[in-house]
Amino acid sequence: MSDRDVARPAEHSSTTALGGALLESLARREFGLRYQPKVALTNWQVTGVEALLRWSAQADHESIEDVIKEAERCGLIVPLGNWVVRAAVHQSRRWRRGGVNYPVAVNISHVQLRDPSFFALMRELLAQDRELTQYLHLEITGLALNSNDDASVRSLAQLASLGFSLHVDDFRTDLSSLSQLSRLPVAALKINRHVVQGMSRQGSDSDVDIAAVAAISRSLNLKVIGEGVETTAELEALRAYGFDEVQGFLLARPMTADSIEHLSGFNCGGL
């Protein structure tokens, strides 16, 4: 972890015990990444991986989502998020040197998206690696679809102008938000895992919503990805709706960087 990524946040209202632990862990370099494969539904081949944050000091009762929310609350999400980007890019370069060319997707907080240091970082990394835009995908939370958030729209346009592929992450089939997609430079839409898993509940509206989102996304020439797939029923439903890719425990759990190196030619068609 670079020292420039562990600076104390300039401002935050208060520090909880969790926030204090996060700050100490940033300084001690106690974070790591795991990588979860994404699989194409046309041929069952691995198309890329998502970098997922892991924290060695995380308590059993704390989810990584809780950790990220606290980092946003106490002003640590920018240094933490920038470290994730640096670490994922470093690993991508190592893989490519060994002939492993999977694109890596990283999650970008809406807070990070508005921070000048993030754009400075992206320009720095791109100057060091002109092929980076082919191998680094940026997953932006659905908050960036807020029609009143012109700052986020401008930020997305800047990233797209640099050549990065932008994916809307954690989309919850809010049909009213889909109208905003046509004015955003995004390439893919990733459906929230709770929506995907909700398809299995009797009387759920998830099926109707997912079908509508998939149809509209195709009309906008967007790739549609389902995350959190845990059952064959969910997998087959998403396949029937015309999803392009899926991700979840049914196909592959998050794994170490070394394990990813052995995925070349891996096929999930036996499911």
Textual characterization of the structure:
- This protein is an alpha/beta fold.
- It has a single domain (about 35-260), classed as EAL domain (TIM Barrel).
- It is about 40% helix and about 20% strand.
- It contains twelve helices and eight strands.
- The protein has helices at about 15-30, 65-75, 75-95, 110-115, 115-130, 130-135, 150-160, 175-180, 195-200, 205-220, 230-240, 255-260; strands spanning about 30-40, 45-55, 105-110, 135-140, 165-170, 190, 225, 245.
- An eight-stranded mixed beta barrel has the order 1-2-3-4-5-6-7-8.
- Helix 3 runs parallel beside helix 5 (about 115-130).
For this entry, give a set of tags:
42% helix; 12 helices; eight-stranded mixed beta barrel; 271 residues; alpha/beta; 18% strand; TIM Barrel; globular
